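Memo to structure team: turn this sequence into structure tokens by end of day. - J.P.
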Amino acid sequence: MVDKNNNFQDSVLEVLSFYEEMNWERIVMDFEEEFLKENPELNKEVLENILTNLSKKKLIQMRKNAKGEKHYKRLFPRKSFWRKLREFLKI
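Reply from structure team:
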């Protein structure tokens, strides 16, 4: 189950955009047809749990619009202080 969950998380991260917020329906529509056929157990509850876990890990951002619908957007990976320093010093 953990392997399946990681597979789902990776697939969700591939589908999510860095620039445009997406609701869960649009996320499901952006999945490849083959992926959905191979994983019929992927439903709204599982997807909501995956999105919540990714939000807790700070890999995605969740916002609610005026209607109360949740929208998700992928976050750019943050660079550590040491990495920024190395780039600055060109080490």
